[in-house]
């Protein structure tokens, strides 16, 4: 599935950059599963829960 996501407010405020290939955490809306918000960029070597 393909998801269109934008940066959350704090990521935009602190200018955290996302590059292609980065692993991120998403918040998805229950109403439209093709849209979401990037809330966290996972650093290399770090696992998500």
Task: Please explain how this structure is put together.
Keywords: Initiation factor, Protein biosynthesis. It comes from Candidatus Collierbacteria bacterium CG10_big_fil_rev_8_21_14_0_10_44_9. Pfam families: eIF-1a. With 49 residues, this protein is mostly beta strands. It has one domain (4-42): OB fold (Dihydrolipoamide Acetyltransferase, E2P) (Beta Barrel). 10% of the residues lie in helices and 37% in strands. The protein is built from 1 helix and 3 strands. The chain has one helix at residues 9-13, and strands at 4-7, 23-28, 35-42. A 3-stranded mixed beta sheet has the order 1-3-2. A hairpin with a 6-residue loop joins strand 2 and strand 3 (35-42). The longest helix is centred in the N-terminal third of the chain and has 5 residues, at 9-13. It is globular and about 30 Å long. The chain starts with a strand and ends in a 7-residue tail after the last strand.
Short description:
The chain is mainly β. It contains one helix and three strands. A three-stranded mixed sheet has the order 1-3-2.
What CATH architecture do you see? Beta Barrel
Distance between the termini: 21 Å
CATH first level: which class?
A: Mainly Beta
Q: What's the CATH topology name?
A: OB fold (Dihydrolipoamide Acetyltransferase, E2P)
Q: Domains counted in the coordinates: how many?
A: 1
Largest sheet: 3 strands, mixed
Secondary structure tally: strands = 3
Task: Specify the number of helices.
Answer: 1
| Gross geometry | globular
Roughly how much helix do the residues carry, as a percent range? 10-25%
Query: Taking all residues together, what is the mean pLDDT?
Result: 89
Main β-sheet, spatial strand arrangement: 1-3-2
Pick out the low-confidence regions: none
From the helix content, strand content and strand pairing, which structural class follows?
mainly beta
SS strand fraction: 35-45%
Radius of gyration: 11 Å
SSE pattern: EHEE
